[in-house]
Amino acid sequence: MELIALSALCSVSVSILLKWLKEKGFEPIQIIVWNYLSASILCFFWFKPDLSHLSLQHTPWWLIIILGLILPSIFLCLAKSLQFAGIIKTELAQRLSVVWSLLAAYFIFHENFNTLKFVGIGLGLAAVLSIILAKGKTQNSSHYHKSIMALIGVWLGYALVDILLKYTSSLGLQFSVTLNLIFIISFIFSCIYVGFILKQPWLTKNMMAGLVLGVLNFSNIALYVKAHMLLKDSPAIVFAGMNILVVVFGIVSGLILFREKSNWMTVLGLVLGITGVVCLAQAM
After folding, report:
1. CA–CA dist 148, 56 (Å, integer)
2. Is the Cβ–Cβ distance between 240 and 278 less than 8 Å?
3. How would you class 149 by CB atoms within 10 Å of its CB: exposed for 0-12, middle for 13-18, buried for 19 or more?
4. Residue 20 and residue 111: Cα distance in Å, rounded?
5. Closest Cα to residue 21, out of 200, 248, 210?
6. What share of the chain is helix, strand, coil (3-state, %, to 5)?
7. Which of 61, 103, 213, 277 could connect to 35 by a Cys-Cys bridge, CB 3.0–4.6 Å?
């Protein structure tokens, strides 16, 4: 359980750091670039992917390239959501992206479902609807619409990555190889975007912040995978523990560190979301 708690803490720490750095004048897109550099290096040394036997012909490069483009885009969307919607709503939307992953598992991968999974999905959809529509007292119309768009982007984006990763693994490519290639390609594409399209000057402070963010980002993944390996007979514990702890840590950090205020619709969304996660865990 300690690994699950540490993984959840790293996950929320990524959001806390990203939100805090944005408020301090750092450039999120540059931070995201360097995040992928440190994440790819750590991935190589931690998971030790066998890249030497990588088949250029049989590797689904189109999927790897798509994921390499999508991942930094969603990370940037996460930064926008943290800015406009706050950490509490963002963390819940990110966690409940599992709803789309499960729907894909049912309709695309033809997995068997029981009643509890359908109930969990229904509660998850209701939870996301509640937090997306919840309007803060100080939000103007423009800010509110940006909040909605960013939350929807996070919700759909993380689900899309999860679905594509599952599809990639179904083609026979190892998880460690896939992850390392995606991180490398994300770094390359992000560099091209910042340097040649945005033409931003590279700042050392953004690089240092991004390298730290990459350590937290990768630690979240590594600890979560390790927890699944150690508790391979109890995947429900890992699933429920991770998702619930991330939401709880997100609430605590949002209320204490960033003084975020919640209305009854946000609270309803949190209750529905956590109940939905418990139902989905019980159904595993």
Report:
1. 41
2. yes
3. middle
4. 41
5. 210
6. 80, 0, 20
7. 213
* Cα(148)–Cα(283) distance, integer angstroms: 30
Positive/negative CA dihedral, 251, 271, 284, 282: positive
pLDDT digits (tens, 9 = 90+) for 32-85: 999 999 999 999 999 999 888 787 788 889 999 999 999 999 999 999 999 999
Q: From residue 51, how far is each of 48, 64, 82, 160 by CA, in Å?
A: 9, 14, 35, 25
* Neighbouring residues of 149: CB distance < 8 A, sequence distance ≥ 6: none
- Residue 136 has a pLDDT of 65
List of residues 6+ apart from 254 with CB closer than 8 A: 86, 87, 88, 91, 260
Q: Return the pLDDT at 138.
A: 56
> Tokens 């309803």 appear where?
268
**Distance in angstroms (rounded) separating the CA atoms of residues 193 and 191:** 5
Counts for the chain of helices (H) and strands (E), in that order = 11, 0
Q: CB-based burial of residue 12 (10 Å sphere; 0-12 exposed, 13-18 middle, 19+ buried)?
A: buried
Rounded to whole angstroms, the Cα distance separating 266 from 269 reads 5
Is this prediction's pTM over 0.85? yes
